[in-house]
Amino acid sequence: xxxxLLCVNNLKKTFSGGKTQIDAVCGVSFSVSKGEIFGxxxxxxxxxxxxxxxxxxxxxxTSGSISFDGKDxxxxxxxxxxxxxxxxQMVFQSPLASFDPRMTVRRSIYxxxxxxxxxxxxxxxxxxxxxxxxxxxxxxxxxxxYAFEMSGGQxxxxxxxxxIAVRPKLLLCDEVTSALxxxxxxxxxALLCELSKYLDMSILFVSHDIALVSNICGRSIVxxxxxxxxxxxxxxxxxxxxxxxxxxxVSYAAITL
Length: 257
Hints:
Blueprint: E1 4-17, E2 20-33, E3 37-41, H1 48-56, E4 63-68, E5 71-72, H2 78-87, E6 88-91, H3 105-115, H4 122-135, H5 152-163, E7 170-174, H6 182-199, E8 202-207, H7 210-214, E9 219-224, E10 227-233, H8 234-239, H9 244-256
Parallel strand pairs: 3-8, 3-9, 6-7, 7-8
Antiparallel strand pairs: 1-2, 1-4, 4-5, 9-10
Helix pairs in contact: 3-5, 4-5
């Protein structure tokens, strides 16, 4: 794809333990355009989170390639990976677990600003942290709280603020709404859509809920047992599912809506 920011080509990841081998990701290919919100949907164990970890560089693929912003991630040097993490950030499923319990949220947000953006001035750090909290709809007075002193929705917003601190080109979201109630889920989804437009930022959005994915992602892939079952417009995956597995996901979503 000409306007692609991320290109995943025939990606495979095999985990080995003794005589056992598990193919967590099997020959998956897709691309994400600049500014696009792209979905990866599937039940637990489908390989979607492993796929996200491969894109993030947290796991190395057994075979295949990942190209991000025109560069092969597998061929990057240590300094190249550092540059990569200024352009690619991740928000995790459990917002509370993603924060150091010994640090205030303010200090957690300062970390990427210092380490990846080179911001050292305390005043500049404070102003940027307040700006980020405003962007995610949080009062700056919450900056000096610890993550465990916040609600689940507030904590996830703070995690998003930390992730966008470096103005990434791609935000990886791994089941970021699954630990939240329905109201908080809707608010987080709306926030991500706003941030994608405002920052011209692509989002790779992982979820087990195909109905939720359809509300935020124009295109998606359906994962099952490490394999890409379907790939295309999310609305079409719901209205005209081709495989039995996708039909099951759609049927379950209809029951639980």
